[in-house]
Specification:
With 276 residues, the protein is of the alpha/beta class. Helix content is 31%, strand content 23%. The protein has a single domain, classed as Vaccinia Virus protein VP39 (Rossmann fold, 3-Layer(aba) Sandwich). The longest helix is centred in the first third of the chain and has 18 residues, at 4-21. It is globular and about 50 Å long. Keywords: Methyltransferase, Transferase.
Length: 276
């Protein structure tokens, strides 16, 4: 089997320009409105609190719209991603937004080697990041190494129950078809298209992905020397993750049309690194 990083990087490299050009990422708004924030960051604005002067790193930052948004809230941000094509778009987004953000190309597992270990007040991870990683405990260890004592981890992510649901069922039943718990072997997908509106036809369509149960994530964070300070499960996600079953609200989040209380769609996790 090909190395998962090589396969997944090819997928992201091809999609990055299409994502930046898609209206769903609203890149033009960053250029024309100096107060504009990404929908993901806006959703968690009350939980993020005051970021003024904090030194932050956004792991797996993709094209940097969340990274720039955090910088606009006052943090001194660095974005890290393993896709050079994604970072090329991120640097252009930051330039057009007049945001002072550094971007570093590296695998997330190497972040503590290429960045200032122990020097960050905030480690941020956004929607759709953790599913690309084969081991959540290794990721949490990296986060713990990046944070200074008292520094904060902030995660907004798709819920592992959502990742386990079969979105293709014609009867629209909420069936758990795919792994909920982390396992050594990936789920291998071969799918065209992407999660934003675009007419582009892609050729790099294979991905290797892993799910991580919520208990596994919390346990990994605790094991890496952090104390969980908040865990909120949400009935919504910022993209149409179950086509034909969701409706978009005034907050730009998507929820089940039928009894949204049935399914946790995403969560926000916060933790603080303890003094060692």
């Amino acid at each position: 089997m090909a190395d998962y990083r090589t396969v997944n990087r090819a997928n992201w490299d091809e999609r990055a320009p299409a994502h930046a050009a898609s209206p769903d990422y609203e890149v033009e708004r960053f250029a024309t409105d100096p107060t504009f924030l990404s929908a993901v960051v806006r959703f968690d604005r009350p939980r993020l609190g005051d970021l003024t002067g904090l030194r932050g790193v956004h792991l797996q930052c993709h094209i940097g719209t969340d990274t720039v948004s955090l910088a606009r809230l006052g943090a001194r941000m660095t974005g890290l991603d393993f896709s050079g094509a994604s970072l090329a778009q991120a640097r252009e987004v930051a330039r057009r937004a007049d945001a002072d953000v550094d971007f570093v190309e590296a695998d997330v597992y190497d972040a503590a080697e290429v960045l200032d270990a122990g020097g960050f007040d905030l480690v941020y991870t956004g929607i759709g990041a953790l599913c690309w990683l084969p081991g959540i405990a290794r990721w949490a260890e990296v986060v713990g190494r990046l944070l200074r004592p008292g520094g904060r981890l902030f995660v907004r992510e798709g819920h592992p129950v959502l990742w386990a649901v079969d979105e293709s069922r014609a009867d629209r039943a909420l069936a758990l078809e795919y792994p909920y718990f982390e396992r050594p072997e990936p789920t291998v997908w071969d799918e065209g298209g992407t999660y934003v509106s675009t007419d582009h036809v892609f050729t790099q369509n294979v991905t290797h992905e892993w799910n991580h149960g919520l208990g596994e994530i919390v346990t990994a964070v605790l094991g890496a020397g952090m104390r969980v300070t908040g865990l909120v499960e949400h009935d919504s996600i910022p993209w149409n993750g179950l086509p034909g079953q969701l409706t978009r609200g005034d907050d730009q989040e998507w929820r089940l049309v039928d009894r949204p209380e049935r399914l946790p769609m995403s969560y926000t996790l916060q933790a603080v690194r303890e003094a060692r």
